[in-house]
Amino acid sequence: MRLVVVGNGMAGARLVSEVRARDPRMPVTVFGAEQGRPYNRVLLSNVLAGQARPDQLGLVDLSWYDTHRVRAVLGGAVAWIDRESRAVHTADGRREPYDLLVLATGSEPIVPPIPGVERAIPFRTLDDCDRIVKTAADSRRAVVVGGGLLGVEAARGLAGRGLPVTLLHLAGHLMERQLDPEAGLVLGETLAALGVETRTGVSAAAVERDGVRLADGELVEGDLVVLACGVRPLTSLAAEAGLEVRRGVVVDDELRTDDPSIFAVGECAEHDGTVYGLVAPAWEQAAVAADVITGGKSRYRGSRLVTRLKASSVELAAMGETHLTDEHAEVVRFSHRARGTYRKLVIRDDRLVGAILLGDTDAVGTLTQLYDRGGPVPGDRAGLLFPGPASAARAESPTLMPDAARVCHCNNVTKGQIRACWEAGAKDVAGVAAATRATTGCGTCREAVAGIVGWLCEQEGVPA
Predict the structure, then answer these.
(1) 123: closest CA among 51, 40, 231, 205?
(2) Residue 216: in which H helix or E strand, if any?
(3) Which has the closest alpha carbon to 82: 98, 70, 93?
(4) Would you give the DSSP letter of residue 118?
(5) What are the phi and psi torsion angles at 457 (to 5°)?
(6) Pick from 291, 311, 243, 301: which is nearest to 51 by CA?
(7) Is the model's pTM score more than 0.70?
(8) Residues of 400-432 as b/e, b for ≥16 C-beta within 10 angstroms?
């Protein structure tokens, strides 16, 4: 059974490693359009801010492929799929036959069709990041176009280098998909304290030598312009092969397309009408597809999204249905703009269906567990927004945290799994990360994992 994977990004690389963990003998070939090893795209903003080096983002070493008998064709984009003969073809004439094919082609940045846009740099890949960093070194001021999660990360990254930044966003408030207007306002004020000026409700009409020209004629000055206008799934390969494509490549609960021999995972896949743009769902899909490919019976039922942004002076967590109003749900909120704090709970049928935490996020552990499990919400709503010592212990103390509590959301790792790998010999965070992949996604769970490992070491008298 020959497996070919098209795409070696975060979804494709994870799919390959999941398959190899289940079946050490299946012939596997992976095609990656980018040169070099796969890397963690989530952490690109840390490179932009100078808080991480590009070589620290790698997901696997290039030697891993030889060690695990995986044939990797890097820098070789697949040009077309021959479904009749079951083979993929590259632009340089290479032909690779398959029995099963996985499309993990990801997304491409949306580039607005405006004059001079070629002067701007998209923020999507490690090469893009390298261009931005080199240009920033000789720039006096930057403009970031797009105020979603990626744009906010780009803006705070450039501001972290000491560069004044103007963030332009078409919608009325920042991160409108995840945040309500008040949270967007508080986030904008937090960014302002970091050196980012936010302009919402504005449209970029052209990129000029000295900055971005708005639709009303105003010039927003900047000698570095970064595009973070969103992404669209890369589906042309699937569409040209005759597969069903809507917003993404349509897949069922096994992650199969309408051709049973072809799967799709990650940002290019559309499951039950949804295209996910975060890493955690992509990795969940990769695990399910790997199970099915190697003879298992797993099914993908969709993902519960938790968006995290944790950077210097910016801490944010948003989950679920954050836009419901008092007419449709019980809404509990607290705002303290002077401290950059905003907290909101959305409760329906006595279940937490959405939440926003901006600023101090000490309640995130308790709320994420409630959201994940769908259990009844305690009667003390204020106690959820402002956990006292007892509530904080229940949420954060390794002693009282149940084994089923999910610690790493990107990789779906529970406290029980961390305990099990510790008992198997992983006595530090690096060992736990190698065994479970906890901390290797967005990295926001590192303190929690360290706390659990430290507690286990303390209980058994093992030097931490």
Answers:
(1) 231
(2) none
(3) 98
(4) G
(5) -65, -40
(6) 311
(7) yes
(8) ebeeebbbbbbbbbbbebbbebbeeebbbbeeb
d(C-alpha 427, C-alpha 453), whole Å:
7
Tokens (6 digits) for 98: 């398959």
Report the 10 Å Cβ neighbour count for 110: 15
* Burial (Cβ within 10 Å: 0-12, 13-18, ≥19) of residue 273: exposed
Q: What is the DSSP letter of 26?
A: S
Distance CA 7, CA 34 (A): 9
Question: What is the DSSP track for 285-345?
Answer: HHHHHHHHHTT----------EEEEEETTEEEEEEE-TT--TTTSEEEEEEEGGGTEEEEE
Using pLDDT thresholds of 50, 70 and 90, give the confidence band for residue 309: confident
Which tokens sit at 51? Answer: 């808080």
CA distance 452 to 464: 11
* β-pair partners for 274: 271
Instruction: List pLDDT tens digits, range 311-320.
Output: 667 889 999 9
Residue 21 per-residue DSSP state: H
Q: In whole angstroms, give the CA distance from residue 112 to residue 261.
A: 36
How do residues 112-142 score in pLDDT, each as one tens digit?
A: 999 999 999 999 999 999 999 999 999 999 9
CA pair distance 311, 433, nearest whole angstrom: 21
CA distance 127 to 154: 14
Pair 357, 367: CB distance under 8 Å: yes
Q: How far, in Å, are 21, 239, 286 from residue 265 at the CA level?
A: 18, 15, 6
Distance CA(375)–CA(353), nearest Å, equals 10
Structure tokens at 403: 């084994």
Number of residues that this document lists for the chain: 464
The β-bridge partners of 224 are 142
